[in-house]
Amino acid sequence: MCLAGCSSTEVQSFNVPKERSVESAQVAVDADFSKYDRLLAEDMGIYYSPKANVSQDDIARLRKAFQEAFDDELQGYNIVKKPGPSTMTVEASLIDLRGISGSDLPVLRHDIQQVARSGSLVFLMELKDSATGKILARAADSAQAPPLATSADVNETDWKAVDDAARHWAGLFHKFLDDNLHH
Q1: What is the pLDDT of residue 100?
Q2: Among 3-7, 78-82, 137-141, 157-161, the least confident range
Q3: pTM, rounded to two decimals
Q4: For the chain, first and last CA: distance in Å?
Q5: Domains contained in the chain, CATH given
Q6: Phi, psi at residue 53, to the nearest 5°?
Q7: 116: closest CA among 152, 90, 140?
Q8: In terms of DSSP bridges, do strands 78-79 and 38-41 run parallel, antiparallel, or are they unpaired?
Q9: Diameter of the chain by CA atoms?
Q10: Contact 44, 94 (CB under 8 A)
Q11: CB neighbourhood size of 99 (10 A)
Q12: Which of 13, 19, 51, 130 is deepest in the core (most CB within 10 A)?
């Protein structure tokens, strides 16, 4: 019997692969990628300090750079618009916490706080079962972090570095899919 105020918590266990090409990677203990042959891509999330003066044009250009890089890398994969039993949802986010101190940090999910720390620019990719929303895997990396004009010490975004970083991360994702997914 549950009285008002009771809640349940679902706990999910993850393994950390020994060999990985990104800074942080977790795969759900019970993840079975063999059942997926379709990808459902969510719009890329872009998060930055509320104090950053980022134009909507720059945000659109960031999204476009990543969209084009991933579109190029994922040719040959079945990309769909709706969830389904053999569809894996792909959620990518660019989280820019450079120039943000503890009190200015946005409220982030606990699992994201583990990889996106104050002072970092992180590319985060989460793979989920499209029908249940259960997280299958997550990877985070800041090794190719391009200079973005979202912090006080960067006046102008280096768009070539953005394109290079997008291609780098798209290539890593393509390799993961080739190693783990049927297509």
Answers
A1: 64
A2: 3-7
A3: 0.77
A4: 47
A5: 21-180 (3.30.160)
A6: -100, 85
A7: 140
A8: parallel
A9: 59
A10: yes
A11: 17
A12: 130
